[in-house]
Amino acid sequence: MRLMKLLKSFNFSINGIKLLLKEQNFVIHLFALFVVILGAIYLELNYLEWIVLLLTCGFVISLEAINTAIEKMCDLISKEKKKEIKTIKDISAASVLIQAIISISIALVLFSKM
């Protein structure tokens, strides 16, 4: 019984990933992750550098998923243009941008040994 419940929850997660793969910004972040991974392989980063890089990139991708969910929820709440909804969407998008900038900075530091 517990196993079936666990498998069902994984199915929800996989469905969420499928939905995210239809979102342009999520795909852009995945492409950036792919490029960063290729750079890390080329530069032969050590274990600690890999951990920092993957955690940082994972955080950006997770924030993008949360941002997408917030935007979808806002659209569900109101199709009308409301100042409050725009504020929520803008702040949510800003969180992704802030983390992306931090991630780029971390990648530049790690890749500076070129």
Give a description of the structure.
This protein has 114 residues and is mostly helical. It has a single domain (24-111), classed as Helix Hairpins (Orthogonal Bundle), CATH 1.10.287.3610. The chain has helices at 2-20, 24-43, 47-77, 83-111.
Poorly predicted runs: none
How many domains, as an integer?
A: 1
Largest sheet: none
Distance between the termini: 53 Å
CATH architecture: Orthogonal Bundle
Principal-axis shape: flat
Main CATH class? Mainly Alpha
Helix content: over 70%
Structural class: mainly alpha
Give the beta-strand count.
0
So how many helices?
A: 4
Q: Secondary-structure map with pairings?
A:
Elements (H helix, E strand, L loop, with lengths): L1 H19 L3 H20 L3 H31 L5 H29 L3
List key phrases describing it.
Helix Hairpins; 4 helices; single chain; 114 residues
Quick summary:
The chain is an all-alpha fold and 114 residues long. The protein is 87% helix and 0% strand. The chain has a single domain (24-111), classed as Helix Hairpins.
